[in-house]
Amino acid sequence: MTQKKVALVTGAAGGIGTEVCRQLVNNGFKVVATHRPGKAEQAQAWLQEQNLADKDIKLLALDVANHEGVSQALGELLKAEGRIDVLVNNAGITRDSVFKKMSLEQWREVMSTNLDSLFSVSQPVFNAMCEQGSGRIINISSVNGLKGQFGQVNYSAAKAGMIGFTKALAAEGARFGVCVNAVAPGYTATPMVTAIREDVLDSIKATIPLKRLATTEEVAGAVLYLAGEHGGYVTGETLSVNGGLYMQ
Ligand code: CAA
């Protein structure tokens, strides 16, 4: 029997993360789904609510912003699993504010969770992928990293940084058979987006050519493509799923 491919998904219990886990596990991957430390009960409840409890999903407590904690947890995970075939760097937060009023804390929180985490999480996994001679890393960026967004100087900077990281690591990974790509979702129907003030969200929707939010299925489908058999010749790319909101 051939061994199942192992996919590690950070921030798995979020709107996009949940659907990414579902599509990967339904397409034959073993999924390691990370949640914040101290949230084991909520993570178990999430598996039940999402009808994922009987699937091949293992939970892992991981604060992606804690470099030492990540090194230790991923070292143990790699020992236990033997390999990681797909890494989806999905964990991300917003701390929206106009720049004039943005605090250093709002800046740092977003940078450490959304961008510094790419260093901490990807390095041990990338090294293992290079040794095994194959792997896919998929970074969940954002349309707002491409076009910039009023009220999101911190988030837009971090999400744009993810795209530079993607291209540079793709250049380094190619000789080892490791493909590195980004998916840049537009406004997607997740709690992060529905938390935007209603009048603000309405005005955003009006500017989207397709006049609606993306579904999490549509975004996860792009991740599955990059993780799967037919994504093997794509690297260093940023795949936009944004309803035409920003056309490069
Ligand atoms: N362009 C230009 N001007 C704008 C603007 C825009 N896009 N949005 C607001 N303004 C103007 C307002 O009209 C207002 O002007 P006046 O003072 O003349 O009335 C001024 O800027 C201040 O705006 P707010 O009243 O909204 O200011 P606030 O301090 O109450 O709120 C904010 C600021 C929290 C940033 C709020 O504007 C907001 O939530 N914006 C949305 C930010 C956003 O898009 N976040 C995305 C979250 S989802 C996500 O990040 C996922 C993803 O990847 C897509």
From TrEMBL:
<dbReference type="Pfam" id="PF00106">
    <property type="entry name" value="adh_short"/>
</dbReference>
<feature type="domain" description="Ketoreductase">
    <location>
        <begin position="5"/>
        <end position="186"/>
    </location>
</feature>
<dbReference type="InterPro" id="IPR011283">
    <property type="entry name" value="Acetoacetyl-CoA_reductase"/>
</dbReference>
<keyword id="KW-0560">Oxidoreductase</keyword>
<dbReference type="InterPro" id="IPR050259">
    <property type="entry name" value="SDR"/>
</dbReference>
<dbReference type="InterPro" id="IPR057326">
    <property type="entry name" value="KR_dom"/>
</dbReference>
<comment type="similarity">
    <text>Belongs to the short-chain dehydrogenases/reductases (SDR) family.</text>
</comment>
<dbReference type="InterPro" id="IPR036291">
    <property type="entry name" value="NAD(P)-bd_dom_sf"/>
</dbReference>
<dbReference type="InterPro" id="IPR002347">
    <property type="entry name" value="SDR_fam"/>
</dbReference>
<protein>
    <submittedName>
        <fullName>SDR family oxidoreductase</fullName>
    </submittedName>
</protein>
<dbReference type="InterPro" id="IPR020904">
    <property type="entry name" value="Sc_DH/Rdtase_CS"/>
</dbReference>
